[in-house]
Fold this sequence. Notes:
This protein has 174 residues and is of the alpha+beta class. It folds into two domains: 10-47; 52-171, 2-Layer Sandwich (Alpha-Beta Plaits), CATH 3.30.70. 48% of the residues lie in helices and 25% in strands. The strands form two sheets. Strands 2-3-1-4 form a four-stranded antiparallel sheet. The chain has a two-stranded antiparallel sheet with strand order 5-6. Its cofactor is Ni(2+). Keywords: DNA-binding, Metal-binding, Nickel, Repressor, Transcription, Transcription regulation. It comes from Acerihabitans arboris. GO terms for molecular function: DNA-binding transcription factor activity; nickel cation binding; sequence-specific DNA binding.
Amino acid sequence: MQRLTISLDDRLAAELDELMRLRGYSSRSEAFRDMLRRDLGQQAAAADPEAPFIAVLSYVYDHHERQLATRLTELQHDHHELTVSTMHAHLSHDECVETAILRGPLGVLTDFAQSVIAQTGVRHGSINLVPLDAPAARDAKKITVHAAMTAEHGRAGDREQGHRHPHKHAHKHA
């Protein structure tokens, strides 16, 4: 670990201390590390849509909306290689919330998230993106080829014909 020394004017130092208090940081160092990680992640996202990321996609939807549950399930199955885990909860008689933890190339994740959020009946949706570090990125590269294949072949026109996956079996999407 390296030690860095920085100088801040009194006003900026006071604002940093207030930020630390509001966010619960125990040290200025941890606050700076988090700010730096966030900025570096944004830079990675802007530089490379193929960069491996983790995403947390959350959305609230009206489960009475005609065929919405079916459409959401189809979208998830068409992008199954991105999903690490999902959670579903009932908020009220009409509303459900789903959260999906996803992993894959940034561009594929954001396209998938937008396709879910844009569905008629999805009332609120958001995605939180976290860049993967080097060891995790190596593991994520294994799914990049499959994600690209799904993006190319998972469209409605291919569902009737079926298609091959890199894992050597063909199947049709319902």
